[in-house]
Recover the amino acids of this structure.
């Protein structure tokens, strides 16, 4: 079996993103698609004393760019994000352990030029912390931009699965409205559907519980037990 997940890189994603990755044998990062402005690619939310707040990486955006071509527009964004996290989570149960670790990730990320590179730093480190072991491949190692652009979206997913030897494709629920499963079955590739239901709650700071914030909230609040709250059995 080789279950494939094909996904765009996001910035410090929520726990459901990593739950999906945990089910994959092969993870293909699809950063060759068109960039979108102020999306999950360059921002996410944390909890603060005054409510949820965005941590946003400033970027040089254009609709003509692929995600992997988007550049970071400021060299000190990482320091601002670390300060925001320190202010909001200084009282978190695992802040003493995890804030220095997370700050180290930000130091690595702050030296990078492209948004995709930044996102990969956090995805890699958080995946390691959660014990996610799927192999990660950049889509450009499988398809040239010309091949990518010549394929209709579902056909592109099928071709990616075929090139990595996928036996099944695991998709998030939003694709149900457009995915043509017959194109997969024609290549003897199964289609599986993932859902984001029934995550357990955990202790949070700053008011009412919220599942949708960045997984950094989970790491800082429950530390070594993060996997059992992020990766459902």
């Amino acid at each position: 079996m080789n279950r494939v997940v094909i996904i765009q890189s996001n910035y410090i994603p929520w726990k459901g993103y990593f739950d999906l990755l945990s089910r994959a044998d092969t993870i293909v990062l699809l950063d060759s698609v068109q960039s979108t402005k102020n999306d999950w690619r360059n921002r996410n939310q944390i909890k603060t004393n005054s409510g949820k707040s965005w941590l946003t990486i400033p970027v040089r955006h254009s609709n003509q760019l692929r995600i992997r071509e988007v550049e970071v527009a400021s060299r000190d964004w990482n320091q601002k994000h670390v300060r925001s996290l320190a202010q909001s989570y200084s009282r978190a149960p695992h802040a003493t352990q995890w804030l220095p670790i997370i700050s180290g990730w930000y130091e690595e990320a702050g030296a990078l030029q492209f948004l995709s590179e930044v996102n990969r730093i956090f995805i890699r480190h958080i995946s390691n912390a959660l014990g996610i072991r799927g192999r990660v491949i950049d889509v450009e190692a499988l398809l040239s931009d010309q091949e990518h652009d010549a394929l209709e979206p579902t056909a592109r997913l099928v071709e990616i699965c075929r090139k990595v030897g996928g036996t099944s494709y695991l998709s998030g629920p939003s694709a149900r409205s457009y995915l043509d499963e017959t194109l997969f079955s024609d290549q003897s590739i199964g289609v599986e559907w993932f859902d984001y239901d029934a995550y357990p709650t955990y202790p949070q700071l700053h008011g009412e519980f919220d599942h949708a914030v960045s997984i950094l909230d989970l790491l800082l609040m429950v530390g070594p037990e993060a996997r059992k709250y992020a990766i459902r059995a």
Remarks:
- The mean pLDDT is 97.
